[in-house]
Amino acid sequence: MMRAMATDLPIRFDGVTIASRTVTLLDRVTLQIEAGAPTVFIGPNGSGKTTLLRTAMGLLVPTRGRITCGGVEKSPPIHRAFVFQRPAMLRRTVAGNLRYALRAARIAPAGREKRIEELLALVGLDGFEKRPARRLSGGEQQRLALARALARDPVVLFLDEPTASLDPASTKAIEDVIRAIAASGVKIVMSTHDLGEARRLAGEIILLHRGRIIERAAATEFLNSPKTEEARRFVAGELLV
Fold first, then answer.
1. Tell me: the pLDDT tens digits for 148-171?
2. Of 237, 217, 219, the residue nearest 227 (C-alpha)
3. For residues 125 and 93, what is the distance between their CA atoms, to the nearest angstrom?
């Protein structure tokens, strides 16, 4: 699979705050996301994981601070893609959803059907082309959402709790797809509340709490030897509030 040059990496946050009059969702976050193994954000509900991913994608504008992608501020998300926790399916077939995504990505018509075959094979939906997308199971819809996101051939793929509410078999299928995508050279940046999933997928783990980065380390180091009290408590399964 050919991929556009990684012009959106690294993604750098410099003192980024996202806030309203009453709520601070991100609090002076400074962070650099680089190419390589998956970066996984963990933390309790409301810690700022989704907000951070959406801000990196360009869906939210910082109240204060600065974000650059490949050194460029206000960079359009041409080489970034986002899969939401509950992706919406178009009222079309599986192949129809992908054709729409390929048209939006300006893929030449002559190459679309072959690309649909490739994408469905990658996510394990071979033979599903004519099925109505909205009648797929939750796990199958999530795999189709991954295929749609890959239609634009992203350099960075953001995943917001991609296995939330899925059964173990569907979770394993999604995780297998994520590994294959990462192995192809796409930078995976994802959030999860599942430490087991973080252990299975992450190259590095970043703990968020109350909109702040508490700890960042290689996955094995983070899980086996957390340095901060908050990380120790989270790894031990204690609730952070």
1. 999 989 999 999 999 998 999 999
2. 217
3. 12
